Amino acid sequence: MEDIRYEIKGGHWRLSAGKAVYWEEERALIVADLHVGKAAHFRKAGIGVPANIVQEDLYRLQQLITKYNPDRLIVVGDMFHSSANNEVQYFQIWRNQFPHIRFELVTGNHDIMDPEVYASLGIDLMESLQVGGMYFVHDPKDKLLDNGETYAVSGHIHPGVWMVGYGKQRLRLPCFYFGPEGAILPAFSVFTGLYSLEPAADAAVFVIGGNGIFKV
Amino acid sequence: MKHTPGWQAIEQWLGAKGLAPFAFQEEAWEHYLQGRSGLVNAPTGFGKTFSLFLGSVIRWINEHPKDYRSRTGNGLRLMWITPLRALAKDIGRAMEEALGELHVPWAVGIRSGDTPLSVREKQKRNMPEVLIITPESLHILIAQKEYPRRFEHLETIVADEWHELLGSKRGVMTELGISRLRGLRTDLRIWGISATIGNLDEALDVLLGNLPGERVIVRADVRKAIEVESILPDEIEKYPWAGHMGLRLLHKVIPVIMESNTTLLFTNTRGQSEIWYHQILRECPELAGAIALHHGSIDAALRIWVEEALHTGILKLVVCTSSLDLGVDFRPVDTVIQVGSPKGVARFLQRAGRSGHRPDAVSRIWFLPTHSLELVEAAALKDAMAENLIESRMPVVLAYDVLLQYLMTLGVSEGFNAEEIKNEVLSTFCFREMTEEEWNWSLSFLVSGGEALQVYDEYHKLHLVGDRYYCTSKQQAMRHRLHIGTIVSDAMLKVRYLAGGYVGVIEEYFISRLTPGDSFRLSGHNLEFVMIKDMTVLVRKSKSKKSIVPSWNGGRMPLSANLGKMLRRKFHEAMSGQANEPEITILQPLFELQQLLSHIPRENELLMEQIQTEDGYHLFVYPFEGRLVHEVMAMLLAWRISQRHPITFSIAMNDYGFELLSDQPIPVDDSNADELFSPDNLTVDLQSSVNATEMARRKFRDIAVIAGLVFQGYPGKSKANRHLQSSASLLFKVFEDYDAQNILVRQAYNEAFFYQMEEARLRETLERIRNGNIVITFPQRLTPFCFPIKVDSLREELTSEKLEDRIKKMTLWQ
Fold it and tell me: What is the nearest CA distance from B739 to chain A, expressed in angstroms?
């Protein structure tokens, strides 16, 4: 998984094709919209989606952790898809491999489990999180205290953009979006769709294709 | 047989009215009374209903000659399957009338999505002797506890308008429903009624499956006189080369309407019908009140009103879509106008037959071309009709999505024994070639979610209790019952006035592109979009001059193989100057321009045009084989070129030819053209090319909904289930990546490829090309042939480039 260096508000970020950000100064790995338990939730309701999606997602997160060796993992919402199910137990075992890493969850609309469940999983809950000049919040619409000094980083919408080329070619790809209002991270889980953004003219957009990441 | 009391009763009843049975009716009664099953081939309006219904009545009278006038509550005897809810009422009325006059106190019930709950409850306790039902409602009956008791006395099943069901997944539902009823009642007689299609014998086999005993086809042999007239533009040079609206000929249509009693104007899409309706009213405001609109998105009550008004003859004109293809006869209709190609001989005949309904009357149909080359189709249609080249309806086979839904249906009611149901399913035409492995997969997909059970898995759908499979979750059972059916449409939202009043329904994706304040057109009204609330679009009347017409999906039909063949012949005739029809001669200037810019292919030639424009490098190929063959042929050619070096194509096609468009020059010339069109390795290359494209993903959409993978939610409950929502394309992606063995994914590829075309037909085309000449031209500008293809926005894509390499050449769309 390639990454690209990007400097933002004085911080040095590495944007990974694995749909995560590594913030060097803070030694923080940042992801959004993991949706752990989504496949199990579907299967529990009798919708036979493949059962091994969560393993794929968590394996990729593990690779990112191994690569960047962070001190903290910040999840910008929708870490879990719905109410507790057996995939959450699988997550617990997986999480135990990294006792030294602090897991911080800025809660999203899907994070509806009891607070005790999160506690037992070793996850700190918060509605928003400010680190340096960055303000982490799940839904970009919910940026409350804007004194003009912080820059919002969110997820929620599963951003994607259309790319066009000569010969009427079109491609829709997941992206990192850095607009004037704030940044939006791509959804981490493979079991998520895309919402097509219409990028602002002065936005920085990085698309992900295969193992590559490209500034466009 | 003619001397039996039943037959006598019928003859006397008819005789009293001064009528006698048609020969085919007597033939059908005879076969039925002898215990045979079969198919009646008769057009609408010639007593096809009575050819089977009365057979059943004769049998009843024969069995109870003494007390048939007094016996009531006899249980369900005859089940009448109809594709259209709207037809049920009229058929029921005709049956009740006959029964009343014959003094047979049978009850006739209707069961469809519109049947009120109270009536359903009554039917539960006491089934009527005759039940008119849609395939979906039959499955809903089977989804109820103790359903076998309702069929204890069933003797006969009739599938009406079987040609409409055959060839669709609703046909598969009918087959499966019948297989279950055959399992319950071993001595059923099964009959179908079908209009003329190319494969009547096969239609019979599909309906009956492996039912033992003699089977017959009874033909009514009624031929209708049909006259076709094209509406020709005055100056062909000024008529558009591409387009699908045809409004420039509006002024020529008005006199036709004015001179007629009642006219049906058929368009191919709902969007077209809205625009035509609006434009005609603008042109002739005096028609207000005497003109109506009829299509699938219009409020059902309004549609019923239009149908009634057609009967009574108070309407001068109805602008409609295929929504009026089927159904009872509207006697006042004396003129039919078809806007744009009907794409098939059978459909054209059916529409033509909507006028002049008395057996001896001539049916008249006007053909209005929406672009110049379409006139060739009119000429082709005439010839095809003269030669009676009616299309076949290809039956759907191995539809695992429907099977999964059906097994679940059995699971939520009485449960099922796997071995018993497997044998019933194998008895149908659709699943006769299902392997043991595929059956096991289907069952295990419902039991364990299609994979080896994992420790963490909580999949629940069917459970084995004793030797029967049941669905034990009440929630899942309820959800399943609400989702029975195979008609998949885009999410539809109701449209209502703010002040109250229902207008119709509209696709969610269309509304999602509007902002409040925008105006759009529906049901002939100009509406302003206010907001969406509780799955309903709220609107008010708009005075805006500019309004958007929804471009409904699914309006595009492929040209049938038969019409394609005729079309090719017509082009060859036209090009060799042999034609003398008015439609062809008027096109002469267009052909001359084509010859000047490029070339007109002879019968043994395949024309290819290489043109560079600001869009990129185009390669146009003209096999004149119809859209379906072109789609697959384009894939094949694109795939073969892409194997030589990395390249990406955008692909478009119409009924005359196809286009490959690329951002780099397309390496096709005299040296490799023969090889690229070679029939060698066809099977392998086709398989690979179809896998490389988006076609299967599109097919998967319906499959996912039918198989119950996409949960669409239902009114009022949409919120509680929001965590279960996903799109079919997302599911396709995860199945492809993480469960490639999934049969439903394989079905999607099969549907994209095998149903789409017979490989034999493509091979034949390729052989024809091999034995002829390939002509490549390099026109300096777009030609009359290529223009309609080039402007088509519905495109496929095929690539052999690495994703990363493609991205590097592209720019962000803003």
Answer: 6
